[in-house]
Amino acid sequence: MRVQQSLAREGLGLLVFDGYRPWYVTRMFWDATPEHQHHFVGDPVKGSRHNRGCAVDLTLVDLRSGKPLPMPSLYDEFTERAYPAYAGGSAQERANRDHLRAAMEREGFTVYEFEWWHFDYRDWQSWPIGNLRFEDIERR
Ligand SMILES: [Zn+2]
Q: Which CATH class is domain 2-139?
């Protein structure tokens, strides 16, 4: 919320793709992903940071148009263009990506080394791995 508020002063907002994810979904992603691309998905043996409710996948949007800003890769693209350190793409795409990263880092998030859109919140290690479905969370 603090990142969103700070970006709003520049006419920008956040578009959230994913947040908390039950462990069984991480297992499904792992099984459906070829082994050479496993660094793009969470290892179910360790549990994903999304399983702990401490990770978020997001991008920047222009608040006036509601459109996402151009980035060096698409969301969930399993190529090196997804790396936050990727030096290709246009200067504007890289500037947008780096702007998102700086805004998130100011509030205690760190970017994942293989995905510009994935951020972990500090202390994520201290949270348990969750396997509750959203329907079950609502009932508590
Ligand atoms: Zn993620």
A: alpha beta
